[in-house]
C-alpha cells in the first residue's frame, strides 16, 4: 500500500517560510516569502507531520503501537490480529482474517488517497515469495547488486564465510586499506544478514576493525562476498532437533 502525496496530509506546527516559487511571485510584494500552513516535500518537518497524522488515525481505529518498534501497529479483533508496518509512505499489512484485512484497506482508502500494490513481493530490499508451503524472504537482487558494486561477481566462490586456519586480529603491522570502501563493504553485508544469519558472526567480527582496516581484514570481508557468488538463490532452512530444541540445524539448499 502506497500513500499518494503523503507529506501533504498534515498541517505543520512549526513556523516554516519558503521563497516564492517561480511563476507565483507577488507583483505587489516580490521580496516577501510564504509561510507554510501545510507540509510540503522537502522540509524536515514533513515526515514527522505525516507520521503524526497517520499514527493519530490508526490509534483512533483501535490499533496499539509497538513498544519497541514505533512504526509497528497491532489490531486485535475477535481473536484475529492485523499487523501494520509503516516505512515513511509505504505501508505493509496482513493478517489471517481476510475480512479484517479488507476492512483496513477500505478504511485507509477513505481517509487517504491510496494505491494498493497487491500481494507483497518486494520491500526495502527484501524479496518476498508467498505460497502454500509458506513465505520465503530473500535478498537475491540485493546480493547481486552488492557483488557488482564491489566487483566481486566473477570471484572464485567459497563454501564457508571464515577461514579456520587463521585468527583475525588487529594486525597493526599490516598494510592499511581504504577505510571508506571497507566500511561500505561491511555496511552492505550487515544489511544482508537480515536474511542470511549464517554470515552474521563473520560480518560482525570483521566490523570490529572498521577504524583501522588492514589487508587481512579486507581479505576476510571478500571471503564473505565470495560465499555469495554461487549462493545467490539459495534458501536457508532451519530445523530444531529433539523436543527440547537443544540442537539446531541450518542448511543451505
UniProtKB/TrEMBL annotation:
Q: Name one Pfam family in it.
A: RVT_2
Which SUPFAM superfamilies is this protein grouped with?
DNA/RNA polymerases (SSF56672)
Q: Where is the Reverse transcriptase Ty1/copia-type domain?
A: 1-163
Q: Which InterPro entries match?
A: DNA/RNA_pol_sf, RVT_2
Could you identify this protein by its name?
A: Reverse transcriptase Ty1/copia-type domain-containing protein
